[in-house]
Every structure is written in C-alpha cells, then in structure tokens.
Amino acid sequence: MKKMKRSLSFIAGLLLVFGLVFNQASTTFAAINESQPSLSEVTSLAKETASYVLSEDSALLTNVSSSSEFRIISRDLILANQVGLDVTSQIETFLETAKTLFAEGGLLNEASNTSGYYAANYAELIELVNIVGQNASNFNGVNLYTVFNDSLKDTTVANLSDSNYLNPYLISELHACLKSYSANFADYETINANLNAALMAITDANGVVYWGYSADNDGNVLSGFTDFYNSNSEFAAIIDSLVAKHTSTTATSDGTIYTDPETGAVYSWGALNPDSTALSLAFLSEYGDATAAAIKYNALVENFKSSTTTGAFTYSGYDSIYSSRDALTGLAAYLQYGNLVDATLDTNTETETATANSVEASQVAADQDTVSTSETSASDVKAADNSMANVFVILMAASAVLLVVTTKKNAKVM
Fold first, then answer.
1. How does pLDDT run across 34-90, given as a tens digit for each residue?
2. Residues 80, 48: contact at Cβ < 8 Å?
3. Taking the CB of the first residue and of the last residue of the chain, which one, N or C, has fewer CB atoms within 10 A?
4. Number of domains the chain is built from
5. Domain range for 180
6. How far is CA 160 from CA 115, 165, 192, in A?
7. What CATH number is given to the structural domain containing 251?
8. Do residues 220 and 374 make contact, with C-beta atoms less than 8 angstroms apart?
9. pLDDT of residue 407
10. Which chain regions cross the lipid bilayer (predicted)?
11. Are 172 and 222 in contact, with CB atoms under 8 Å apart?
12. CA 97 to chain CA centroid, nearest Å
C-alpha cells in the first residue's frame, strides 16, 4: 500500500511538472517590442498592480509574525505610494500594528530580530512614518532615526558584505533610507561609506554575487545607487558592463539570456522568466537607455500580464503574487527613472508636445531617494518564490526520472 501511495505521488508530481512545462511551451509569446509606452499607461498599470498586491497581502496590515512579513507589507505600501496610489489609510493601519512590536519579544526590539532585518525594518518604518507625515523622531516614544543609526554605526564592511549576516537584497533599502534622511543620522558618513564598500565587495563585472549571478540580484541590490555611480569610476565601470550584459542576446555560461532575441524577456532556468524580466527592467530603467528599458517593459507586459486578473502578473501561465510583486518593483523603477512622457495634441499648432514626467511632492520628497524599488526575491521574503525556478524532466531509458529543480532562493541562508 505504501509503495502504491509513493507511486501515485510520483505520478502526480510528474503530471504537475509536465503541465507547467507544456503550459509555457504552448504559450505564444509576443515579439520583441521597442516602442515607448506613455506615462499614463505605465502609471495606470502600476496602480493596478499595487492594488492587486496589497489586496493579496492585506492580512499583514494587522498581523505580522516575522521580520520578512514586516518587510513584505512595508514594501507593498512604499511602492504603492511611489506609483501614485493613495494608501494613507492602509499605512496608518499598519503603523498601529507596528506600535505593538516594540515590546519585549516584538520584531522592533533588537533582542528579537536578526541583525540585517532589524535595521531594514526600521528603514521601512521610517519611510512609512514620513509618508503619512508623522514624526519619526518620536514614534510611539521611540526615535526611529537614532535606532537605525545605532544599529549600523559599528557594523563592519565584512559583516555588511557577508550574506550570512546581512541578506544583500537589504543593502539598497538601507542605503535609500540613509540618503533620504541623512541629516537625521549622526554617523551618516561612516555608515554610507561602509555600505558602498560592502556593495563593491559583492559586485563584479558579471553582477552581484549571491548564489551566482542573476538579473534578480542586479535589480534588487544595485537599485538607488545612482549617486555612487556618478562619484565612483570603478563602480560606474561595473554598472556599464552590466548594462551591456542585461541587453545582450547571447547566453551566459549558465544558460541565462538577459535579453531573449525573440521576446526581449529574460530567459533563465529553462524558460522565459517574469520575475527576472521585471527586475532587469528595474535595473535598466535606472542605468540603461530608453530603448533597453522599453524592451523589458513590453516583454513583461505582453508576455506575463494576467489576462484574467486586473493588476496580476503570471508565472507559467498562472497568477502569481511573487511575480506581481517583482512586476511592481520594475514598474515603480520605470516610472521613477524612465523619463516617461504623455503625448498631447496642441490644438493651436496641431503638433504634439511632450508632457514631462513629474512626481507630486506628497508622494516623494524633494531630493529624496526612494526606498529601493525592489521586492526581494530571497527565500526569507519569498519562501515559495518562483522567480528563478523551473523544472526539468529527464527521460532515461524506459523509466521516467523526475528531477525538480527547486528554486535557488528557497535554499538561501537568512
């Protein structure tokens, strides 16, 4: 009986794998498209995606049980605000939840949180408090700026660049918070220098080194470092080489094609990948040119936008909250860095004029670097993530041997 159950389980798994593989194999993908989308189009889609993501994660507004859940809902809210969705009431609800987490045993108590996430959760909280106009220097009796500063002032470059100490996907948002509110941090110069050094330690001409190289790593970790790009020639040279990699149609040694020549999407782990495509969009929006970013945007929307659920994006043909979060990341970056415009008709001259992309002051403060436009794809945030995962079926002789290549992110050390 046990053997029969094992056999049935094996067959069920095999059918599931074949279903996923053949589902994508039978999908007709859109051809590569260089056309520039309008500001209105991208804004509308980004708001729809933000609404979908928040609806899926709404339970976290009042109940978070881990530092990664804290980060998920915080980033949902930050990105939704960034793309122009009014999330004031949701943020205020979550901030009331956050106030319960300072007590002993709570996530915002240093003794109860991991080193990297403790600082990151405070970075997220600082941003949310500022979005709704509350006082981050006295939130629930706590000076959030001081706690954030003190959690990092003595952290060495060796620790910051050690993925066992700090998930590298957190570096960009630590940096964004630091830059956005620099005047409030007593040890700003030291912390900023250490974060920049840590970034250099984990990045080379092939990308960010974290379980190998990937578009996901680059889009998540390198977000928001434009100031460092402009001031450090070595870092600028690395970024420039990565732009070339993200626009290359030639497969890397591990089989990844950063720009599939037929669709423009990222091809990784045996399939066109929505998450990697979205995060390559985020990277190219900031560091690439308009055509490269447009190709990634069109590839994301035309190949992975759900045909049944407003705002959702798909993985292997099925709606996926993970792919939708990464899509929101890419769309937010595209709005922030893409210099998108709307074409309007001048009725007097009958010529088209461009309306420049602007962001309301209520959404993003002047000269403020937006908190990293990246939804982390690491296992601590995406325990069931599908971003870099696919399945391979190998038929050997007369027997079928099922090899499920589980997502590399699920194996990452927190």
1. 999 999 999 999 999 999 999 999 999 999 999 999 999 999 999 999 999 999 999
2. no
3. N
4. 1
5. 2-411
6. 10, 7, 11
7. 1.50.10
8. yes
9. 38
10. 387-405
11. yes
12. 24
